[in-house]
Structures are given as structure tokens and as C-alpha cells.
Amino acid sequence: MEPEYTLYEQQMLRTLKRWEIKLQQPPGFVERTSKALQTRINRLLPDKMHTTITATVKGIIQTTLFGISYVPAGLPLRGLSLAERDGKAEELLSRYRKIAAVEGAGTGAGGILLGLADFPMLLGIKLKFLFELAHLYGYSTHDYRERLFILYVFQLAFSSAPKKPQLFETVRNWPTIAAAMPRTDDGMAGIDWLQLQQEYRDTIDFRKMLQLLPGIGAVVGAWANYDLLEELGVAAMNSYRLRWLQERAGARDGGNAR
Fold first, then answer.
1. How far apart are CA 110 and CA 257, in angstroms?
2. Which of 20, 145, 161, 204 places its Cα 20 to 30 Å from the Cα of 170?
3. How far apart are CA 87 and CA 241, in angstroms?
4. What is the pLDDT of residue 115?
5. What is the pLDDT of residues 150-196, one digit of tens each?
6. Is 105 exposed, middle or buried (0-12, 13-18, 19+ CB in 10 A)?
7. C-alpha distances in Å from residue 44, one per residue of 37, 49, 206
């Protein structure tokens, strides 16, 4: 039996359809040019530097995903409508945008050394936001599969246009993918860490390089971090909306939805 969606849920279904269409679009001129330039720069960097950066990104993400310090206290929220969850998610995103902007302004004003320190700090802020967001939508990050889902959402937000459709398919089919996974935490074995860090760097590099310029670093740092959190928020909220509505459609009645 077809579920009876609320008016808000119908609006979100249309929002998700527009989002999916946008993810399928080829990169524009600016993005193509930026990607080509960044690819040339990456080729000029020594392999040792790529190895070091990859190890740093991998270390930060793995420590976060397999640690307990980022897991929110208390149980995931239950019994709320999608509209109520989205409202709480918007409040959470607003708070983390401000945190990221303050952090970016502070490191941007501190010159190159503090500007470089912004990279792992901002990464931690993003991951912390995703952990809390998962609990708002009713998913427990005590389950490593939910942490792995967070990683795919992160990649969806900060990957180039050609990579996004495949990542979107992973997010859309996550219930089936997760069900086939072992209950032990060996699901990270298939992650291409070099690709992940290069895609992430390529997406944020232009904005973050401007942050290192004298005189404008604080302003650019605040703008860049705020903007990057906004991009992450859109991808993450839509990903969890999609899962929530899939479960809504799979339920026999509204009482079985999260």
C-alpha cells in the first residue's frame, strides 16, 4: 500500500528530486577549469607529500569514526516527524556554521602556520556535525555502519561532479548495502584514501588558499568555512531525508516510521 505522505514530506520529495538532478549535472566551466588546474598542481607535488597528506586525512577520519569522543550522548531521537527533525537539523547547522566561521577567522588572521592548522580543525568540526546530525534523524553512530555512511555523505559533499552520481547511488542504496555488511568494523577496507583526500582538497583548496593571503585571511577564512559547512549541511540533510522517506515508504503504516 502506498504511504500517505504529509504535505511537508511531499515538498521534501520534490526537493530531493531537484537535488538528484543537480548531482547528475556535468561540471560547469569554472569547476572544470579549477579541477584541471588542481590536477596539474597535484602532479607537481612529490609523492611523499601526497603520502603524508593522505595519512593525515586517513588518521583524522579513522580516529573520529572509530572513537567514541564524537558519539553524541544519549539515544538517537525517536518519534519525531521529518519536519521536526529538519527544524532541529537547521538549528544544528546554524550553530556549526558559526563555529566554523569563528574558527576560520581566527586561523585566517594568524598567518600561514595557523592557516595550515585550520585543515584538521575544520575537518573535525565537519565530522562532529555529521555525528550529531545522524542522531537527530534517529540513527545511532554506535553502529560502525552508520559511521561509514557518514563518510560517504562527507565524500558526496566534497567530491568533484563526475564522482557525485556514484556516491549518490551508494547513499540511496545504503539500507541494502549496510544489510550485507558484517557487524564487525572492517568496512573501511574498501575506502580509497588517496582519492578521498585529493577530491576533498580539490573541492576546498581555492577557498582555503585565499585564507593564507595576508590582510584578507580572517575574512576569507570565516567565509570559506561558513560556506563549506553550508555545502555539507545540504548534502547531509538531504541524505538523511532520503533515508527517512525510504523507510516511510517501506513501512506499512506511519507508526513504523522513525
1. 48
2. 204
3. 12
4. 47
5. 989 998 998 888 889 999 999 999 999 888 887 666 556 567 777 77
6. buried
7. 11, 10, 17
pTM of this prediction? 0.79
Amino acid letter at 183? R
Q: The dihedral of CA 177, 179, 182, 188: what is its sign? A: positive
State the sign of the Cα–Cα–Cα–Cα dihedral 230, 53, 120, 195. positive
Residue 161 burial by CB count (10 A; 0-12/13-18/19+): exposed, middle or buried? middle
Task: Judge whether 82 and 245 are in contact, CB under 8 Å.
Answer: yes
Q: pLDDT tens, 63-96?
A: 777 777 788 988 999 999 999 999 999 999 999 9
pLDDT at residue 252, as a whole number:
47
- Cβ atoms of 50 and 42 closer than 8 Å: yes
Task: Give the integer Cα–Cα distance in Å for 19 and 211.
Answer: 29
User: Counting runs of H as helices and runs of E as strands, what totals does the chain give?
Assistant: 10, 0
